[in-house]
Amino acid sequence: MTGVMLIVCMCGGDAGFDGTVMSSVNSMKQFQTFFGLSIAEKSTGIVFGMYTVCAFFPTSILPDRVGRRWSMWIGNLCLCVGALLTGLAQNFGMFIAGRFLTGLGCTLAASSAKAYMSEVTSPATRGRWMGLLNSFYYVGQLLASGIAIPFGRQASDWAWRTPLLLQCVPAFINVLGVLFISESPRWLYSRGRHEEAIKVLAHLHSRDRSTASPIVQLQIQEFEENISLEGADKRWWDFRAVLRTSAHRYRFGLCCIIAIWGTLSGNGLITYFLPVLLLQAGITDPDRQRVLNFVNSVTSFIAALTGTSLSDKIGRRKLLLFAEIACACGMAIVAGLLSGESSSPERATTGIVFIYLFMVCYSFGYTPLQGLYPAECLAYENRAKGLALQTWVGTLFGLINTFGMPVALPVLTWKTYLIFMVVDIVGVVVIYLFAVETKQLSLEDLDHVFTSAKPKQTSFDLAKAARERMKLEKAADQRA
Fold first, then answer.
1. Which positions carry the signal peptide feature in this UniProt record (predicted)?
2. What is residue 37's predicted lDDT score, i.e. its pLDDT?
3. Residues 6-19: what's their mean pLDDT?
């Protein structure tokens, strides 16, 4: 099980490398000179914007048509080709084509990985493994920002080409590893391949790998009750089911909360344009900027792992509330410290410290849940389409970061942080009113949550019952 999960986690590394390598490369004079770009202009936004352009239909169709496993493989293979094109680009058109393919492949692989991991893990371990999947974003980020430090000191174009070429490393590991793992048992069952599904469940969840195991039989019973052989996942063109009932609309609404506030909490401002923020704080040396970018990756990764380890104890809802409140406070403090009316080297340095603390809080609360919570909330037949739609919603709101920030940063400077502070305050209210608790609940349990009259209260009751049940099971195991 551990080996399977680590192979899938490479898809999280894809996303981290892809997002961070552009931030690192964007600070290199060699890159700016070769393509005639500046560090914060509209053309730079276009380069970042290729990340998810046109990825919607492949991510909504392929996981249901060819399976979660093979759509991961296709996505990562596409990413490898894109990395080669960007790293060897001779003109801006070739570079954009490569960015298109890396964005397409990265998004397809990430969406497929979320669906796959949510469907092969047990309720007791789902939070930990899916949190780790999203935390691997920082493994890719560490590789990208760490590689950029020594290569950024070179005078040749290989200073920016090498990091872009190395982007294919996590993807290539997944391309090879996927050939040796099994398909999602829920996908197999939905395709009428019941015997294969039972064998996969026994292999992954039974200690003695017995198909007669009680846990395997219980899961098969839940499959029979909740997975339709004629569901909307068999009709690639049919997106109506995502919003057909009030329960499905509630589910997708929670996905949109993660998409919107996971994008507009201020994290995108820092992730993509950290070099610009450092310039505004008085740090002008590109080499030092890359070192600080690397430090940001380290601290964020540690925070994400900590949040992952606690997601099944604290609960998803409390983590989200903590993250959003902390982000609002962080944006307010940074705005005050970097304000033009009271600027000084000491205040600028303190402002940078709080930027890092902001990312620590964001990574602690949001990073473990960005892949986990939407995949838990969506019903099986809508999971692939819902995750694709969620990515699309996140991309739409991400256009504010991609195209708005290059224009706003030079004009608004520190006032930009106040805008994100207001967005975060609204997020606190929305999460408090609507977010349900999903920890320790099976994906089939969550069907009962969303069809109930009071989903939020029902989730609290079921989570409490699941917690008590797990305590009894643990005590029984200890006695045995």
1. none
2. 65
3. 85
